[in-house]
């Protein structure tokens, strides 16, 4: 072992300095990975693979809905597609992708040598592979995949074939993986920050993930409880949700949404963190209202526990209950609006440039705000009774989750890709990907607002003739959006993985601040052998 000076001028132990990664090579490097960067890469590649699988299911759904009447499949298979599309996208694509970002960036941002529990980190990733295989293979089981909707409502789940048990088992494993990942993130952030980095000096991405990790630990056991009760109803003679035995199917909805609504914020808070890193960098200003952003994130997390039954306005709850959940849901719009106004204030009179990360960040703010507004309409009980289970709801949550979670991920990938791979992506490829994604996304989902307002129910394989035109438009948009993501993989991801492109400098973006921009590109295998010491502003390294 030769001691070499690392990038901060500290002496650190490095195995060889021949430009090779230090550590295991070949398949062992990935199979037994304990380095946070390798595990982050594995998470991101896994999430992208699942995004493609879930996307193919979505395109099958849209192909069926291109015209009225049954085109390609029977209604049962259509319902299997809608169920598995939801489960794969939520648990297989969005959540693992954000954990990939956390693994890659949190140690770099807080000056830690690695995640706190490196072997548990490896285990939490590899658990997801059998779970994903179980989910995807459920299509080939007797009776086909689960067809109860991604919300898995009883009594439908009590009537499904053996694939339902595989789905329940897969969700348990994915939940265990999430809990382990969350424990790792919390301990890393609380214990391994560089000297001088207080909590209120941390980057916003680290803050949003800290809060998200607490949310995950709080609600994943609730989901585990709900699906375990479903399992015992199916096989062990209990009647939690079976009315014939004195059970209550509506109780499942309460338990599920007590998990499900915080889950929505689990999928958007890390996105807020990514956008809060990118907007100041490309506006070349400090983030406006840092403390208020931290408090807003915490408020969203706390309020997310008292709004779950806004998904259940049509279940016959008392008016008092409807009023409580209606007002609580409107209240949660306030901290969300604080964030949006802070991003706009950060951009105000900034020296802005619009490279791909900023394009996706601005696109995110625009389209996510639209999704937030439609959420306010659905928060009002009298309106929601009309719009419940229509395509208006489909439009709303895709505006929040596709334009929210997915666009923010693309922003983060373009922003940090030079640091991850050591090469710059081609800017024109990023622009093509952004504009095609934004345009096709709106062509796909904007017409669904009108379909929902006109009364078209969701999860139906057939529909009345009056809905034909908007469905045809949405299907064309859906295929365009899918192709845009294939283009992104071929034109941006593959060249970066192969190291093709202009070499990235240590700090490729002028206005970017933070410890991750103090290490070379690509980030070395062992980043901070000696913890960096920070100056009073916690942005520059001393020495």
Task: Summarize the model shown.
With 543 residues, the protein is mostly helical. It has helices at 26-31, 36-64, 75-110, 118-126, 128-137, 156-159, 163-191, 204-235, 249-266, 269-283, 290-303, 319-347, 356-379, 381-387, 391-421, 427-453, 468-497, and strands spanning 2-5, 11-14. It folds into two domains: 38-267, Cytochrome c oxidase-like, subunit I domain (Cytochrome C Oxidase, Chain A); 270-503, Cytochrome C Oxidase, Chain A (Up-down Bundle).
Walk me through the structure:
There is one protein chain. The protein has 17 helices and two strands. The two termini are 24 Å apart. The radius of gyration is 23 Å and the shape is globular. 64% of the residues lie in helices and 1% in strands. It has helices spanning 26-31, 36-64, 75-110, 118-126, 128-137, 156-159, 163-191, 204-235, 249-266, 269-283, 290-303, 319-347, 356-379, 381-387, 391-421, 427-453, 468-497, and strands at 2-5, 11-14. The chain folds into two domains: 38-267, Up-down Bundle (Cytochrome C Oxidase, Chain A), CATH 1.20.210; 270-503, Cytochrome c oxidase-like, subunit I domain (Cytochrome C Oxidase, Chain A, Up-down Bundle). Mean pLDDT is 92; it is low at 1-21. A hairpin with a 5-residue loop joins β1 and β2. A two-stranded antiparallel sheet has the order 1-2. The chain has 543 residues and is mostly helical. Belongs to the heme-copper respiratory oxidase family. Residues 7-21 have a biased composition (Basic and acidic residues). This is Cytochrome c oxidase subunit 1.
């Amino acid at each position: 072992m030769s001691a070499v000076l690392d990038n901060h001028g500290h002496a650190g132990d490095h195995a060889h300095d021949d430009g090779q990664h230090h550590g295991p090579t070949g398949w062992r490097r990935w199979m037994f990975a304990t380095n946070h960067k390798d595990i982050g890469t594995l998470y991101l590649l896994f999430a992208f693979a699942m995004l493609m699988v879930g996307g193919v299911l979505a395109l099958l759904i849209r192909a069926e809905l291109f015209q009225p009447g049954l085109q390609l499949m029977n209604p049962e298979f259509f319902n299997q597609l809608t169920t598995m599309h939801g489960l794969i996208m939520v648990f297989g694509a969005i959540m693992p992708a954000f954990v990939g970002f956390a693994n890659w960036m949190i140690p770099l941002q807080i000056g830690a040598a690695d995640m706190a529990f490196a072997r548990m980190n490896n285990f939490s990733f590899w658990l997801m592979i059998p779970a994903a295989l179980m989910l995807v293979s459920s299509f080939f089981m007797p009776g086909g995949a689960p067809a109860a909707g991604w919300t898995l409502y009883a009594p439908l789940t009590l009537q499904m074939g053996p694939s339902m048990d595989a789905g329940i088992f897969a969700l348990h494993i994915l939940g265990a993986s999430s809990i382990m990942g969350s424990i790792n993130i919390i301990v890393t952030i609380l214990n391994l920050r560089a000297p001088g980095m207080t909590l209120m000096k941390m980057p916003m991405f680290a803050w949003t993930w800290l809060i998200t990790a607490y949310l995950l630990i709080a609600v994943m056991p609730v989901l585990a409880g709900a699906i375990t009760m479903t399992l015992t109803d199916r096989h062990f003679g209990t009647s939690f949700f079976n009315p014939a035995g004195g059970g209550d199917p509506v109780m499942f909805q309460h338990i599920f949404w007590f998990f499900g609504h915080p889950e929505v914020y689990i999928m958007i808070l890390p996105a807020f963190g990514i956008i809060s890193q990118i907007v100041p960098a490309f506006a070349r200003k400090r983030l406006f209202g840092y403390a208020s952003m931290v408090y807003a994130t915490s408020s969203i997390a706390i309020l997310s526990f008292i709004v779950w039954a806004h998904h259940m306005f049509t279940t016959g709850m008392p008016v008092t209950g409807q009023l409580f959940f209606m007002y609580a849901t409107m209240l949660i719009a306030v901290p969300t609006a604080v964030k949006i106004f802070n991003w706009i204030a950060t951009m105000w009179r900034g020296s802005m440039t619009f490279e791909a990360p900023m394009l996706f960040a601005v696109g995110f703010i625009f389209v996510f705000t639209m999704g937030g507004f439609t959420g306010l309409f659905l928060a009002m009980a009298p309106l929601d009774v009309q719009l419940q289970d229509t395509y208006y709801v489909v439009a709303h949550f895709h505006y929040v989750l596709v334009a929210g979670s997915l666009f923010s991920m693309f922003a983060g990938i373009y922003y940090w890709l030079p640091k991850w791979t050591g090469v710059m992506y081609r800017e024109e490829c990023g622009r093509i990907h952004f504009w095609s994604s934004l345009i096709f996304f709106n062509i796909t989902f904007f017409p669904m607002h009108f379909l929902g307002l006109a009364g078209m129910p969701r999860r139906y394989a057939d529909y009345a003739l009056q809905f034909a035109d908007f469905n045809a438009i949405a299907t064309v948009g859906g295929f365009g959006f899918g192709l845009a993501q294939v283009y992104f993989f071929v034109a941006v991801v593959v060249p970066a993985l192969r190291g093709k492109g202009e070499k990235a400098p240590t700090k490729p973006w002028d206005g970017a601040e933070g410890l991750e921009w103090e290490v070379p590109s690509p980030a070395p295998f062992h980043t901070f052998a000696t913890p960096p010491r920070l100056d009073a502003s916690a942005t520059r390294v001393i020495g």
